[in-house]
Design goal:
Elements: E1 10-13, E2 21-24, E3 29-35, E4 38-43, E5 47-52, E6 55-58, H1 64-67, E7 70-76, E8 79-84, E9 89-93, E10 96-100, E11 111-116, E12 122-126, E13 131-134, E14 140-144, E15 155-160, E16 166-170, E17 173-177, E18 196-202, E19 205-210, E20 213-218, E21 226-227, E22 235-241, E23 244-249, E24 252-257, E25 260-266, E26 271-276, E27 283-288, E28 291-298, E29 301-307, E30 318-321, E31 324-327, E32 335-336
Antiparallel strand pairs: 1-2, 3-4, 4-5, 5-6, 7-8, 8-9, 9-10, 11-12, 12-13, 13-14, 15-16, 16-17, 18-19, 19-20, 20-21, 22-23, 23-24, 24-25, 26-27, 27-28, 28-29, 30-31, 31-32
Length: about 325
């Protein structure tokens, strides 16, 4: 069977118990959109119209609606948002279109459809860039494409079920987005992160300690993880103590400030863990490949203090109970110091 197309140039309206009326259009009609009990439609190359009192009425006389294809119209916070195919969202003020700023990169995407979610978020399906989940204010919540979980980048239809999950009708198959799940999955397709040993959320960042080093990303932004220079190698542990982020590394102990290594306070190799040993948290016990060591906070700065003598074995698992420190050994019984 060959390709075919349908051109629509008329709208037939039948009010209840009344005769059918025809509303003539001057050009091909694009999508018909029903929102706020009003039917909208676009005559391609002519403008955007709505049906009011059984008559065709222009929404705006601006040339914008002649030059831009309208994909859908959404009611967001009591204002109508007009989504275009290639230029993002707009509102109308004084009959003129005004850009609604979002995180969509309109230079790279062509929009095919969109829906508003029950939580007031917006899902935007594209022709070749997957699907975008936006927060209520238009900021990006997350993006899914073939590289990040869905089976095809062309999203032809969208549907939210009663459990707030989102279904995608794709160019090749149907995908289900478990939007109600408490868990998000990040897949390291490039293998740059390596094997993750530890993680922590601190001051708005998510940190991952791996066998390749320390990586970070802003927790509220849909970005890739970035490497923190100076942390190459095995990271064993990340701990927040007194609002300081400690990194236990194969080469010692590092203090991390946002996306940089603030300082290295211990060169003793292989820091396994950190635990405060007094109430004001100014003393911290750390276990290393070669025993236990103490860090001290002086004048707001953390410094290396000393090593506990008489214990030379690897001290990965230890507890401070009262005045006694217990250290676990892989083959021997627990050692009391």
């Amino acid at each position: 069977m060959g390709n075919f197309s349908i051109t629509i140039k008329n709208i037939f309206n039948q009010p209840r118990k009344k005769e059918v009326k025809r509303i003539d259009a001057k050009a091909t009609i694009g999508k018909m959109i029903y929102v706020d009990n009003t039917l909208y439609y676009q005559e391609l190359g002519v403008g955007l119209f709505k049906i009011e009192n059984e008559k065709r009425k222009p929404v705006s006389n601006s040339s914008f609606f002649k030059e831009n294809k309208i994909i859908t119209i959404l009611n967001q916070n009591n204002q109508l948002l007009y989504l275009t195919e290639n230029n993002g969202f707009y509102t109308i003020k004084n009959e003129e279109p005004v850009k609604w700023i979002t995180s969509l990169n309109t230079d790279e995407i062509s929009v095919y459809n969109a829906i508003k979610l029950k939580d007031n978020g917006i899902v935007v399906g594209t022709i070749s860039n997957g699907v975008y989940f936006l927060n209520e204010d238009g900021s990006l919540k997350y993006k899914l494409n073939r590289q990040k979980g869905i089976s095809n980048n062309t999203v032809l239809s969208l549907f939210e079920d009663r459990f707030k999950n989102v279904w995608l009708g794709l160019d090749n198959g149907i995908n289900f987005i478990n939007n109600s799940s408490r868990f998000n999955v990040f897949t390291d397709n490039d293998g740059k992160l390596g094997t993750v040993y530890t993680s922590i959320v601190h001051n708005g960042y998510l940190y991952l300690g791996t066998n390749q080093g320390l990586f970070y990303k802003e927790i509220k932004k849909q970005t890739n993880f970035n490497f923190i220079p100076g942390t190459k190698g095995q990271v064993w542990i990340l701990k927040n103590i007194d609002n300081t982020l400690f990194c236990g590394h194969d080469k010692g102990t590092l203090i991390i400030n946002n996306n940089t290594v603030k300082k290295q306070i211990s060169n003793s190799p292989g820091t396994w863990d950190f635990k405060p040993i007094n109430k004001d948290k100014s003393l911290v016990l750390q276990g290393n490949y070669n025993g236990l060591h103490i860090l001290k906070k002086q004048n707001g700065s953390w410094e290396y203090k000393n090593r506990l003598e008489g214990l030379n074995m690897s001290s990965r698992f230890f507890e401070n109970i009262g005045n006694t420190i217990y250290v676990n050994h892989e083959v021997k019984r627990a050692i009391q110091t």
